[in-house]
Amino acid sequence: MIQIITPIQYIFSSQIQAGIEAGKYVQVYRSGSIPLGMVRNSATGRFVAHAVGAVVNNSPLSPLVNASEFAMGAAQMYQMHQGFSAVQAGLNTLQTSVGVLQATTAVIGVGVAANLAISAVNLYQTLKLREDVKQLRLEVRDGFIDLKQVLKNQSAEIIQQIEQVAQNVEYRHHRTILVQAYGRFVQALICIRDALKLVDINMRNADIVSARGMLLQALADYNNPLLYEQTCPVGQLRRKECAWAIDQAITTTYQIQGAYEVVSDRLANLQNQIRHDTVNIIDACETEDKLDFIFPEIKRLHDHDLVVLNSWQHHVDWRRSLSPEEEKLLSSANFSDSDTYNTENNQKIGTSPLPPEQKIYEELKQKSHPLSLRDQLRFMMQTELRREAETYISLQAPLSGYKALVPANLQQASHMTIANLYWYFQARDESTATVEA
Hints:
The chain has helices at 14-21, 69-72, 74-78, 80-103, 105-108, 115-119, 123-134, 147-150, 156-167, 169-195, 201-222, 233-256, 260-284, 288-320, 324-331, 343-346, 356-367, 370-381, 386-396, 407-412, 415-436, and strands at 8-11, 25-30, 34-41, 47-50, 53-56, 59-60. By secondary structure, it is mostly helical. The protein has two domains: 56-346, no CATH class; 368-436, no CATH class.
């Protein structure tokens, strides 16, 4: 089955949007059907504007890990004389993401964390922490935040959990690895920022290569098997998220150098890696409290982070397909009519006390067999995993008189329906087997 990607809707400035509606401008599409965040003049073909925002499922594009600037700023990134600002903004977002996500491990720790404690750093709380860091209300030191100070108004149990984690010998060993890795990550980003200021291309490339080496070493540290041994699924997810962010920074170094084929391959591989890693984490999630944590977070990764990576890859592949004439048009484009993409405005949490993903999860819990919730996540991240469940349902349904549950109809059903049906028939089989015994 083809992996389903959440549709993305690009937003353009009011002036550009009016021109689109009047037929003066037309949005750029890849392969005739995949929308890109750029607009060109209908008559001359000249590129005139880039998107200033994006919406996914009627919500502003707001990835948890990835830098939405890399999808939104794609047009400028191909104009290297103008695009360094988009690169800088994206790297800043990645640095903030890694710092905040890593800091939450001070609550999660190693092993089994208390439900109340991990709820203090759930999706909504993490988004709030990220915003506080971006607004300089919180400081990240060595890749960590003083969570005892941040959560001082929380219950005594949470503060006690933080203190217990800090004293845990295994966690202290993990923390040492993470601090060193974060230091390399930050140093590499500084090197990239300095390289972007260089006029000499050879010197710039040399510094970019040096920075990439530091990033690769940092990535190896974050992927150190020691960080995942005896670590609960919640902790594994947060460590993986840091690794995905660094992987994205490495890909950015290749884009700066114009190696678009490498960029496209890396983005495809990273999307596959995220799906693979999250399914492994889902499979390891055996308790309801851990599922309460990871379900909304993985839903956000699916609906926003994978969308950013997919959009970025489409922009890169479109760039690779341009004719020499269109390359000249792109390099000479004037995007002065475009407003500046405002990351802060596009990623506001909003006034709701819960992210949309949390609301969706609470609704699914009311309608789903407990075990089906985990399968719904698995199906969402790797659609091909539905096949076994669909086959099982299609074999069991006729025995119970459900003639409508044929393969063609099952393929059109939602993940919730398939997972619930699967566990319904599983329970029925177990009940029949018990009676016969």
